[in-house]
Fold this protein.
Amino acid sequence: MSADIPGALEAHESSNSAPAHARTGPRLRWNKVPEVTLYFWVIKVLCTTVGETAADLLNEKLGLGLTGVSLLMSALLVAVLVVQFRTSAYRPGVYWLAVAMISIVGTLISDNLTDNLGVPLETSTIAFAILLAVVFIAWYRSERTLSIHHIDTTRRESFYWLTVLFTFALG
């Protein structure tokens, strides 16, 4: 593998970078997430804004109600995540579409809890903070790392996307 390809992991490095118990599941050839740069944060903020705005707009314009929009967007998120998990490397279009969809669905989860079930925002914030902590603890216990620089197994990618979902639902 060429060392000049961004996100590429050398085969021997990835096989030696994690303890034996953390190397379960299919080993991917590339890191599946972008480098964290200024551009990353600009796009991330834009995705957050899209999530908030799109969730409200879709709820008002589609006439499906909050539950209907939530089901539709969740189904679309699942489809995008299937594509994301099947890629062997970071693909900007797929990755950022997944982030935007998770932003929308995370917002809709919070909206449903508050609007449909009457859960106070303080309660849902505490619940999602706890869920996020549980994901971090499980991720660290199983992988011995929380590094996003080596999202190169299906399990690590699963922990990564759960973390992203709970952070969007959190706030």
Summary: The mean pLDDT is 82. The helical segments are 11-16, 38-61, 65-86, 92-116, 121-143, 154-170. The chain has one domain: 34-170.
